[in-house]
Amino acid sequence: MTRVREIAQLGAKVLRQKAEAVADVHDVEIRQIIEAMQSTLATTSGVGIAAPQISESKQIIIIASRPTPRYPSAPLMEPTVMINPCFEVLSEAQEKGWEGCLSVPGIRALVPRYQEIMIHYTDQQGGLVESKLSGFVARIFQHEVDHLEGKTYLDRVENNADIFSESEYVKLVDGMSV
Prior knowledge:
single chain; alpha+beta; 3 helices; 22% helix; globular
């Protein structure tokens, strides 16, 4: 099994750099990065990961929506590796939703994201994929693509009052479900 990598934390230079495009999806180094991302994500309750989060400045993300303690109502999907991902906005409509990040532990924030997007990426076999995303999975995709642009979700927050500690977020969510 591939070694689990340390997750870069807010303040790490790699999280603020624009990631490099992947030229050859079959390159051994790229395969090793993908395996490390998969192994690392599997040890967390995250629903996605970007290569810069394991200190690799490459345009690779994995979207892995699944119900977790952090996202109990997340839809279940197979983890999907996306190389050189990008998207187009299908509707200007945005919605604020709660986000956290493996690179920013202990913090949650309400982040506005586009609700409907058309995504484009290269799969692990080198095929070009185009797909329409909406809702939570579209949110994850935009969050992970931000990492490839050198941004974190905190850069998208409209009002600092929308930033919560994890413990206050849990109290808020528990209060809403009572």
